[in-house]
Amino acid sequence: TIKDIFTNKPNFGTYKFLLKEDIIKTVMENNLDKSLIFFIQKKLVAYINFIQEIRNETVHGRPATLNEANSVRGKILGVAQESVLIELVKYKKMIVK
Would you say 49 and 43 are in contact if contact means Cβ atoms under 8 Å apart? Predict the structure, then answer.
């Protein structure tokens, strides 16, 4: 549940599950800009999927390759691609306003 986030350590799947909940969608639709909703429901979930796929393979299977580690690093920092961090900061500023 949403209240459990503050007492437990949720994994990536928990966040994706919560973002699909009707109550969360309704709150976002009533309180957030459409571009922010798009970012949260589409782009943020895509970033989570990307990181989750590599993370799960690394934890439950083989170690991450240098290429995979660099790919995650590049996606987070924005090396020759969009940056998760820059987008999060941009949308955080939208929320704070």
Answer: no
Alpha helices in 1-97 (DSSP H): 12-20, 22-31, 34-38, 45-60, 66-77, 84-96
DSSP designation for 82: -
Of 89, 88, 47, residue with least CA distance to 71: 47
Separation CA 32–CA 15 (nearest Å)? 18
Amino acid at 56: N
Question: Which of 66, 68, 35 minimizes the C-alpha distance to 50?
Answer: 68
Tens of pLDDT along 18-73? 888 999 999 999 998 898 899 999 988 988 888 888 777 777 888 888 888 888 88
- pLDDT tens for each residue of 11-22: 888 888 888 899
- The rounded distance, in Å, linking the Cα atoms of 10 and 82 is 26
